[in-house]
Amino acid sequence: MDAIGNIISNQCASVAYICRLSGKTYKHDESLPDARVKLTKQVASISTEQENVSGFQSGEDVKKPGSCSDGPTASTNDHTVVSGEIIEDRCKDTDELHKVVKKSISRIRTRAGGLEESQLIGREKEIAYLNNLISNRDNQQVQVISVYGMGGLGKTTLVDNVYQRQKLGDRFEKCVFVTIMRPFKLVELLRSLAARLHEASSRKEELIERSASTKKTMATMGVEDLIVESGRLLGGKSCLIILDDLSSITEWDQISPVFRQMEKTSRIVVTTREEDIAKHCSGQHGKIHKLQVLEQEEARQLFSEKLQTLDIRDTAIIALPKTITKLRKLQYIHAAVKSDFVPHDSESLTTRGLNRRGACTLACCIALPSIMQSHNGLSGVMVPRGLRKLRDLHTLKDVHVGRGNVVLQDIERLTGLRKLGLAGINKKNGPALCSSLSSLSRLESLSVRSSAGKPGMCGCLDMMSSPPANLQSLKLYGNLETLPEWIKELQHLVKLKLVGTKLSENDSVLKFLGNLPKLDVLDLGSQSFQGEELHFQSPQTDSTFGNLRVLKLAYIGDDSSELRTVKFEVGVMPKLELLQLLLLGVTNEVDISGLEVLPNINEVQLTVIFDIEQEKIRELHASSSQDKIWEEIDQEQKRKEGEYKNKIREQLDKNPNRPVLTWY
Questions:
Q1: What's the angle, vertex CA 486, arms to CA 485 and CA 487, rounded to 5?
Q2: Chain-centre distance of CA 257, in angstroms?
Q3: What are all long-range contacts of 74-79, with beta carbons under 8 Å and residues at least 24 apart?
Q4: pTM (2 decimals)?
Q5: Each residue of 603-655: pLDDT tens digit?
Q6: Distance between CA atoms of 296 and 303, rounded to whole angstroms?
Q7: Taxonomically, which superkingdom (predicted)?
Q8: Domain span(s) for CATH 3.40.50.300 in the chain
């Protein structure tokens, strides 16, 4: 447990890289005195304007409509609006002006609030440094500020934070943020830049531009026209331009001609991963800044305060440290290995007698992931007590609870859970499991798996008084023999998956499942039923499986339960569109009948691998040269597969819907 804690601690310094890969932005609160001062001024300005409007409505001394053209200019953080135009709008519709004023105040407050909540952990010095460089008026020429560093450090988030602060101020007439897309296309970048410059233009400029009869639309402009257009929009204006994710010197050389007409107090900020690109862009008069990796304490703070997703699926981690309970913002915990295989005692590939293809399929796709997952008897990740502290948790999968009831008691307190996956269920913790599930009223998805190699979950789920009413997806792995009665109450259940449940009395169970009103996908995995036959019978009253669209049947050869027949009768599954059949290690053909009576079936997906005859196995053991024997085995497999596919295809040809047969 301590080792896992040390791993997480040592890796904290590179958590920004993980954040970038997951597409997350992690930020931190800090005071913003400068932004607040600017905000206060702008809100006061707009509030005064609102008072003037109120005065006009009440007959107080304000300018009359005829004399409103010589008023001063009122400024917002997005664009400049001539005051005369505002007063003219007032004269036309004062109610509409009230709405505009309120909307402007709301927008400014929202942006300031967003800035207050969007402070970057450990980047306060960089933010102050870049803001000072950008705001400095001493340098009377266009300056390029380049920020560089390895991918994932947070360059984009850093410059975006600075950009948003600058937009709140009045230092620049136009502020534009452009991300360079991949693959790089100059015309697309210039079109994006020009479009954003248009958006940042004042209302008066827009009126002038619209009156130009010879103006081309940007969608039809080529590179030269776009350079001219962007230069026109930049000309004589103090602008802040952000170019995010520049990847080569060539890209800069193609873009930079646009900025020749910029006003000398303008600033360009470039982000890139390479130092040589940064130096080339900034030149002699610009500045470059290397973004460093976060200090360990800052990374730890970022990890604990902002981390929302912890995904350790398909890793060797079998237990989470107690410090996990300090990550109070966690919403998603994903753990363990995906596997539909329920291992049994004395399970081995050699006893199955599969051919090379079958053995590889079974080993690589099913058995080996399960063996790795069930190492030390676990088929889920161990978690510490105290999980109840993670009140924002939305998803918890897959957690092993087989060593006591403490974790289940914690889970009972996580009333916001939507998705839950549990492993290690047995008779001892069954009552606590049922109690926990009854408290999770918001639960939509549930996966329950018995301990690896154990007797299963017989009777473990029967004591639930009230199942989660909103449950839409249910997956059960392990020996049940009979389905819990409460499943009948799941009126919103859409997906049901059963693996290794070994249900008896197949006819009554299928009737039970067929009455679930919203069941859309039914997945019957290996050993989900005992016996040799699955018989989907015609409904006596209403349709059985009336809303089912997808049916998946999987069978892996086993002497204790050999599936021989699957039969569909008229009237069953009227909306079924897809049938998936996975048959591995079968001794004899599984007789599938009734496909011609399924009215909406569009596709049957089939995989079948037959068992190897014992005589051939003995020959393999006795022979010193096995290649010829394997060749004979493969030929026999192909012959059986071809015959089986032809039988399935004959039924499908009789179906009026003409469904297709595919091999998957």
A1: 90
A2: 40
A3: 74/45, 74/49, 75/45, 75/170, 76/42, 76/104, 77/42, 77/108, 77/111, 77/167, 77/168, 77/169, 77/170, 78/167, 78/200, 79/200, 79/201, 79/202, 79/203
A4: 0.62
A5: 999 999 888 888 888 888 887 778 888 888 888 889 999 999 999 999 999 99
A6: 10
A7: Eukaryota
A8: 120-290
